UniProtKB/TrEMBL annotation:
GO biological process: methylation
Matches recorded under CDD domains: AdoMet_MTases (cd02440)
Protein's UniProt keywords contain Lipid biosynthesis: no
Annotated ranges, domain Methyltransferase type: 48-133
Gene3D superfamilies referenced in this protein's UniProt entry, alphabetically: Vaccinia Virus protein VP39
UniProt-recorded name of the protein: Class I SAM-dependent methyltransferase
GO molecular function: methyltransferase activity
Organism name: Thermomonas brevis
Alphabetical UniProt keywords: Methyltransferase, Transferase
């Protein structure tokens, strides 16, 4: 059965008792913004959201930083047709980022709840863009085998945490904890205890 990211999908998982509780999302957004601003030493100005779905991050981001520039990309025809114009969403598959560089590196790059649904070939094609398009901090929320995460298990790839860590570190991203990764450009400015071994 092919998964379709249509209205019914977003209703089930992000609106009606799914994983998209507004308070939970607000906390994620606050964490990501605070982490990026701490390392940039200024308010964020730009956010790039890869695998944005309906652009759920946009409203809580604008509530915190009303002048932030938000750009989202997703492979859902439904989400782009319904929300694209109003929320600044564009169509792209993750693998399209092998070549797609739609903007300068963003202060905050978001890739939330995406990587664990991609096959390894698509993931490896688009992954370098996460480092290249991140000028501050990347919030890369991915779940590994054994995490016990709640949500859509259809097409969930049962990979180890090491699988993701190795690939992201190879790109120059450094883990900060809580799904946050420091951009390669800022790694030289971080202190020893800000970055885990």
């Amino acid at each position: 059965m092919t998964k379709t990211y249509d209205r019914a999908y977003f209703d089930k998982w992000y609106r009606h008792g799914g994983i998209g509780h507004a308070a939970r999302l607000a906390r994620k957004v606050q964490l990501a913004v605070a982490t990026a601003e701490y390392h940039l030493e200024r308010p964020i100005r730009s956010v790039l959201d890869i695998g944005c779905g309906e652009g759920a991050w946009r409203a809580p981001l604008l509530k915190l930083r009303p002048k932030v520039s938000y750009l989202g990309f997703d492979s859902s025809d439904y989400a782009i047709a319904r929300h694209g114009r109003r929320r600044n969403l564009r169509f792209a598959r993750f693998a399209d980022f092998e070549h797609l560089r739609p903007c300068p590196p963003a202060d905050l790059l978001v890739c939330s709840d995406v990587l664990h649904y991609l096959d390894a070939r698509e993931l490896d094609r688009g992954l370098p863009a996460l480092a290249e398009l991140c000028g501050g901090v990347a919030f890369i929320e991915a779940f590994a085998r054994g995490d016990g995460a709640e949500g859509d298990e259809h097409d969930f790839k049962q990979r180890s945490a090491a699988f993701y860590r190795e690939r992201l570190r190879a790109l120059g991203l450094r883990p900060l904890g809580s799904h946050c990764w420091l951009s390669p450009a800022l790694v030289p400015h971080a202190t020893s205890l800000e970055l885990p071994d």
